[in-house]
């Protein structure tokens, strides 16, 4: 039996693909918030007013659409990998409430990472104010879900003294 398998037959580490996709999504989300989001909002406003806007504006807006589409693809592949190849068990040493909170946080993260790009695409291509506003509101909420996820990883590492954070680092996959 390989070293990546525990005695119960459950993998004790994430796959290398899952870890790579995790950090790829982190970078893509950072790009969305720090670089392209303002361009998309300005491009939306320009399109609504019938203006052509500037080339740089449309470059940023289109980059936002492309990066959001990559987030959607990466999240779907990561979710598939999680179900197809298993996930490590929640670490020993963390209390049950922390396991429950981790599960809720992960469901919220995947929901946002899949629904937000779809909502954004529907908002843009259907010219739907409803989907565009839902996408924008979800982006504001996602920040808090990400913060909860990061706090959970840090709590596992520093407070509960588990390997959960260490096991998500590049080079630690199976």
TrEMBL record:
Every copy of the Cytochrome b561 bacterial/Ni-hydrogenase domain together lies at 13-171
Q: Which membrane topology term applies here?
A: Multi-pass membrane protein
Q: Name where it's found.
A: Cell membrane
The record's section on InterPro entries has:
Cyt_b561_bac/Ni-Hgenase, Cytochrome_b561_oxidase, Di-haem_cyt_TM
> Where does the chain cross the membrane?
20-40, 60-80, 107-126, 141-160
Write out the entry's keywords from A to Z.
Cell membrane, Electron transport, Heme, Iron, Membrane, Metal-binding, Transmembrane, Transmembrane helix, Transport
Return any one Pfam family short name. Ni_hydr_CYTB
Which SUPFAM superfamilies is this protein grouped with?
A: Transmembrane di-heme cytochromes
Q: Needs which cofactor?
A: heme b
Please, which domain of life does this record's source organism belong to?
A: Bacteria
Family, per entry: Belongs to the cytochrome b561 family.
Q: What is this protein called?
A: Cytochrome b/b6 domain-containing protein
